[in-house]
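Task card 7
Instruction: Convert sequence to structure tokens.
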Amino acid sequence: MVSSLRKMAEECIPIDKLTLESKNCEITARVSREWDVYSFKDTKDLMSTDMVLIDKEGSYIHASIKGNFAHLFQNRIAEGSVYYIKIFSVVPNKAQYRVVGDNKLMIQFCPSTVVRSLSEDSLGIPTSAIPKHRFDLLDFDKVASRMWELYILTDVVGVVCCEGEVTNKNSRGNIVPSLMLELHDLRDVKVRLTLWGGSVDNYMKQKSLVQDGIIIGVFTSTLVKKYMNNAVLSSTTATKIYLDLDIDEVVALKNKSSSSPRGHIIQPLIIEKQELDTHAVLSNLKTIGELLEITKTDFKDGTLIFCVATIYDIHNNNGWYYNSCGCKGMIKAYGQSFWCKKCNKTVNDVIPSFSRNS
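Output:
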């Protein structure tokens, strides 16, 4: 059995050699990250189980298992383990919220996908030869450049210098815990990150195990948002947290923080209250008619405009939101994906849009 597995592993192709035309391919890879994606409408409705796979060359790819048959793999795949995988589809990567941003392809498992665990004997090389992690770490001074880039999620590494309090907030109709952190990098550039839901509990558990008091974390697959005119990060369902990870970037931050007299002390996070500039409000005050005219032009994303109006009705006949691709047009089911008539294209990722009358 071991010899047959080793032979199959030797016949596998590197991940970076996969193409849309690849058929009957076999790969050997480590499941570096694994997470579940649930429906916006029902947090118990599993949409998919997703993974990041890494091979011995260090190439990596996003893999996904549809929710209606994800249970077939529930006890067969474990994060961190190495597998021989065959019978899968190679498809275009997602148009939005990519976890592997520089890869134009991803893998879709099917019910008949073969997944076999590999040991060092069957692999023929030490399992340590396959990297445990790979991140696309973004410098903090470049975070703002991703504010309107929805095609990719963002990985960062930083020292936790300030920490807020865990509070319960409403997120898509559900009350979930949230925690805001402030991180700084090697150049002392700072950025704020809000953790949501399970990410809060994950962070707190890992933090309690850190011995030296310096909290340095890698936070993956975060979304760049705008808060009080600043670029901030927000965790997603794909976010993974790694505190005190043994990688060069963490070691460099730890060495710098250790030399600082206050390097190990986390300060309380002070959240400033936003004050409106009366002159800015009055100078940008528009009527609804003027807003409608502006939407017909090629206006810049993030344009700040104020309007005084009364909300007299909220469309909720078909739920609180409708599915869109980000253009605010409604999309409809189209095979295994969706179709946006307004953009005239196939859509793989659904974005909830809320409908209001003012």
